[in-house]
Fold these 2 entries.
Entry 1:
Amino acid sequence: AQKVTQAQTEISVVEKEDVTLDCVYETRDTTYYLFWYKQPPSGELVFLIRRNSFDEQNEISGRYSWNFQKSTSSFNFTITASQVVDSAVYFCGGSNSGYALNFGKGTSLLVTP
Amino acid sequence: DAGVTQSPTHLIKTRGQQVTLRCSPKSGHDTVSWYQQALGQGPQFIFQYYEEEERQRGNFPDRFSGHQFPNYSSELNVNALLLGDSALYLCASSKPGDGNTEAFFGQGTRLTVV
């Protein structure tokens, strides 16, 4: 069984602040995928990133960056210089089978002007 | 290029009734998955269809069933609706050979059971 923990339920920041969203994915399997999705008020889940369990190289994409540490089962997501349009619910999770995606409960991010 | 489309967008049903939700995958995708998202929760995997067969199923009762058609579109059927079935139902599609890790989601069907 897998367990996804997003300890932060709600975060509120002022525009231009940096913000880090935490995620812990616990599994006994050695091979799995991790991911982050964003869900704006419209409801559609928007894919952000996927990372294989054997790839611990951190990644930066524009204002987004991800930090994966297998030793602590953490896969954290940082938004640099946040903007109002970043306001959404962010879900992390993983997939062991390659079929079912296991999501956390989400972190609601509110960015105010 | 149309993304994943779901219909209807909203639905109100009475307890005990049956409901059918529909999903058309993104062009070029042949795998369709269904998720249930209760208010304030993350999506929960219901099942996945590939080549018109159920490939994997989550922890949902037999009241939840599905079908995939030769054109890769899919339906989710829920029988004997309970109040607890009220949720946002999301459909996701993915490309052949991509597993289900880069899934594209539709905007969902909001089901309310009264």
Note: The longest strand of chain A covers residues 88-95.
Entry 2:
Amino acid sequence: EAGVAQSPRYKIIEKRQSVAFWCNPISGHATLYWYQQILGQGPKLLIQFQNNGVVDDSQLPKDRFSAERLKGVDSTLKIQPAKLEDSAVYLCASSLVASGRASTDTQYFGPGTRLTVL
Amino acid sequence: GENVEQHPSTLSVQEGDSAVIKCTYSDSASNYFPWYKQELGKRPQLIIDIRSNVGEKKDQRIAVTLNKTAKHFSLHITETQPEDSAVYFCAASTGNQFYFGTGTSLTVIP
């Protein structure tokens, strides 16, 4: 089966600029996750969607980060304006159902977008 | 929210020995505990998971144990091989929230 797709793979911007990342989950997967992984740390969940609704965005810095999944399929994550500390890999993952809800809840990760803020 | 702690942060073992990584969690509502392996520059890959209604699960050389009372779970890798070298992350989920541990860098010395 086709995996989770993300673009771009790499992005370099200067601080205070804006950037957007795109994710296309595995077909049929209702749940979509965006994670931020800073070098040497574990992934931190930024936002979780169930179809086109937000399940959890408690760790999303809402003053500068936004995400949408308007049609319940692909999703975009935006940072505006970027700060130096936003340099990280942004991972998108999807699962058939939300993790912890059923046995079909395995999360599959995309390749990530490596963001460097100068 | 949930707090997942993982130990040790680094672990070196001789090839053929066993490796054990431990995680604790704080939210008693967490009911799903996956383990991921992440090789350098690659995406996390699920290697095994366990649910709150099970105490132990095995898959060949990999096993996971869960103690719900103590709120901790562990990953056991037996007969380690050089290709097991990677960063391993535990995670905990309530169904609505998903938290990763801080990772364990495992090195298997040939």
Note: The interface with chain A takes residues 1, 6, 30-32, 34, 42-46, 49, 89, 93-103 of chain B (CB under 8 Å).
